[in-house]
Write a structure and sequence with these properties.
The chain has helices spanning about 5-15, 35-50, 60-75, 80-100, and strands at about 105-115, 135-145, 150-160. By secondary structure, the chain is α+β, with helices and mostly antiparallel strands. The protein folds into two domains: about 5-50, no CATH class; about 60-160, Ribosomal protein S3 C-terminal domain (2-Layer Sandwich), CATH 3.30.1140.40. Strands 1-3-2 form a three-stranded antiparallel sheet, with helices on one face. The longest helix is centred in the middle third of the chain and has 20 residues, at about 80-100. It is elongated, with a radius of gyration of 29 Å. This is Dynein light chain Tctex-type family member 5.
Length: about 160
Amino acid sequence: MSDVHKDKSVRRDKKTSRVPSEGSHGVKNTAGKTKDPSTFFIYSFMCALITGPRKRFPAPAVVEILKDVLTSYLEEEKYEVEWSRQMIKTICEVIRSRVKDLMIRRYKLVVLAHIGQLAGQSMQISSRCLWDPATDTFASWSFKNTSLYGVASVYAVYFE
């Protein structure tokens, strides 16, 4: 084998069989020393064992969002069937995006809204969910003008 071929094979072997440096085995601290990788693993494992939210879902802030959205979208409107179908979709999307802007981590959101005509009738709206009362919660608000009513609810279920 010629010297040129030997040099190429040696360079190729060096590229494919690199030895990791000492700093890549652990996590560097601020002093430049390498920590033991087992402590990093234990810390990561302990973070994975945390159950429950670090920050509770802010139901009063969500009620304010519901109040603002329902009032601004329904205050001057008259009830119409086709209009209410489109408005329900719009209201749900706006509520969902504004609640997500609160940046509450690890909560799954369910947004429900109802619009109906006021014609002298009475109506009851109810819902049932299976959840953990220690972590899961909801917020609800209702609005009424001369021709329609609107009810919006946001359910926040903690996702572990």
